[in-house]
Amino acid sequence: MLISKFNKLIHNKLVWAAFAILVSLSMVGLFAPTVGDNGGSDNRIGTLFGDPVMRDELVRAKMFAEGFQPTRGGEEEQARMQEQAWQRMAIVRYARTLGVTVSDQEVTETIIRDKAFAVNGSFNRERYQQLIENQMRVPMKVFEDYLREELLLNKMQMLTGSSLWIAPYELAQSVARLTDRFTVDIVELTVSNLASNVTASDGDVRAFYDGNPSLFNAPELRSVVYVEWPLDELAKTVNVSEVQIQALYDRNIENYRNPETNAPSPFKPLSEVEDELRKEVAATEARSIASDYAMQFVNSLRMVDYGDAVSIHTVAAELKMNVYTTTLFSAVEPPSHISDGDLFSQAAFQLDAKDPSTSYSRAVVGDAAVYIMAWNTNRPAYLLTYDEVKDRARKLADQDAQNRAFETRLTDLQKQLSALTSTGTPFKVASESLKLSVKTVGPFSIYDSSAEKVDYFADIMPAVITLNAGQMSAPVRTDEATLLIHLVSREAGDQAEAIALKPDVNRMLQSTRMRTHFAAWSKALLANAKE
């Protein structure tokens, strides 16, 4: 993990803007005083190794486990992240008893080495600070505490996995799978060429409707109340300094290369892009301002009347803000007047009127505005009558009947091919006798430069990599077809290439086994720590 997990996100301004709000609001829960909490026993949520664990510690551990990206998903995903947070706390505490630490120098060196914080190939502290504090909205101290913890976890993983050993035979087999050269016969089968003429009877259509009510529900509709901070309006209030413009220009100088090869300078002059830069600075500042306002609003919302939608009106009245109410809308058809409709709708359908902590949203960061919403009302989903959806039910029932007929035909073909090849009939001859078209592909290996030109390469390799010549794989499902694959031949690859790959493959196996071992050890450690 470490800070490298952020690298893919650094250049995505919308994602960073969303993180800015989400993380800022997470900080409210992490550092702001909790209503009715005096830091006493009511804030204690468990023990590890006999010592108490406070709620704020768990919130912080969960934020670190998520990498500052709040978990999306249902109860199962939320429970998984909660378990990871507890494991993280247990490992950190156990590491301290062993005397395992991370020095300031190790943290510094890790930051300096990360290319995300480099300008022209060298670490740039201004860029580092700008990414962490201005875009992510994470205090430097918090981020560096997170990084220190990640390095500590890495040390514990190395420590627990130090005794792992890769057997020579296992290493040789793994290398062979990468370098062996394969030739295969492939039969492509689709529903359209095996079961296109199959249709469902009237009784089958009705049975399909009765058996799949979720496919014929009118969707739930919701209405929310919300406040907003329009970014364009906030941008107009921002005073952009020449220093800010110059700094942004210097940071992104590579974006302003002059397309004219004979130009006196390789870069466009600042004066030529000044207006563009001014707007960008103003937009960034507006998003930052909205972030702060949203953080303050949610904090006030928690203090006034935790979880009650009415309190959004109370807070808004104190701040002299308008509260808007949407009409009923679905998860796939957001309110037409919201320009950031998809984000808005997604947040609205994560609200839960029965759970105070999710009856109102965190900030929803769009291109046009930042929103905070609260539950208003809904119209639950309901089952449409058979007559209302008869045509759709027939179409879906026909598809279901065709898929079932295809599976029956596929099983029958497999049996016939197995019977024919078991008597010595070549796979290709057996297939053609059943009026199946066969395509021969190869020889190729994973390391072939032309491998990407092989049809279904990514699907073929996992299926045949453990087979011996003459064997047939289980049916391979792809987006376009189902494949029956027969391994014609498997030959040893280039020995020099195999020898060169061994160190890398050994490291890969060690790393994979170490992660698996560490996950099992972490789970056992937590169970022991809670006893």
Radius of gyration: 30 Å
The residue-averaged pLDDT reads: 82
Overall body shape? globular
Biggest pleated sheet: 4 strands, antiparallel
Assembly of the depicted chains: single chain
Total DSSP E strands: 14
Query: How many angstroms does the end-to-end distance come to?
Result: 29 Å
The low-confidence runs, each spanning 5 or more residues with pLDDT under 50, are 1-39
Within the largest sheet, what's the order of strands?
12-5-14-13
Number of helical runs?
A: 18
The residue fraction in helices comes out at 40-55%
Structural class: alpha+beta
Q: What's the structural domain tally?
A: 3
Which helices and strands appear, and what pairs or packs with what?
Layout: H1 13-31, E1 44-48, E2 51-54, H2 55-65, H3 75-98, H4 104-113, E3 118-119, E4 122-123, H5 125-135, H6 140-160, H7 168-179, E5 181-189, H8 191-194, H9 202-211, E6 217-218, E7 221-230, H10 231-236, H11 242-251, H12 270-305, H13 310-318, E8 324-325, H14 341-348, E9 364-365, E10 369-379, E11 382-383, H15 390-422, H16 427-433, E12 439-444, H17 457-464, E13 476-477, E14 482-491, H18 495-530
Antiparallel strand pairs: 1-2, 3-4, 5-12, 5-14, 6-11, 7-8, 7-10, 9-10, 13-14
Can you put this structure into words, describing what you see?
It is a single chain. This protein is α+β, with helices and mostly antiparallel strands. It has 3 domains: 2-160, no CATH class; 181-199 and 394-491, Chitinase A, domain 3 (Roll); 220-380, no CATH class. 52% of the residues lie in helices and 13% in strands. It has helices at residues 13-31, 55-65, 75-98, 104-113, 125-135, 140-160, 168-179, 191-194, 202-211, 231-236, 242-251, 270-305, 310-318, 341-348, 390-422, 427-433, 457-464, 495-530, and strands spanning 44-48, 51-54, 118-119, 122-123, 181-189, 217-218, 221-230, 324-325, 364-365, 369-379, 382-383, 439-444, 476-477, 482-491. It has a 4-stranded antiparallel sheet, sandwiched between helices. Strands 8-7-10-9 form a 4-stranded antiparallel sheet, sandwiched between helices. Strands 1-2 form a two-stranded antiparallel sheet. Helix 2 packs across helix 3 (75-98), helix 7 (168-179) crosses helix 18 (495-530) and helix 11 (242-251) crosses helix 12. The model is unreliable at 1-39 (pLDDT under 50).
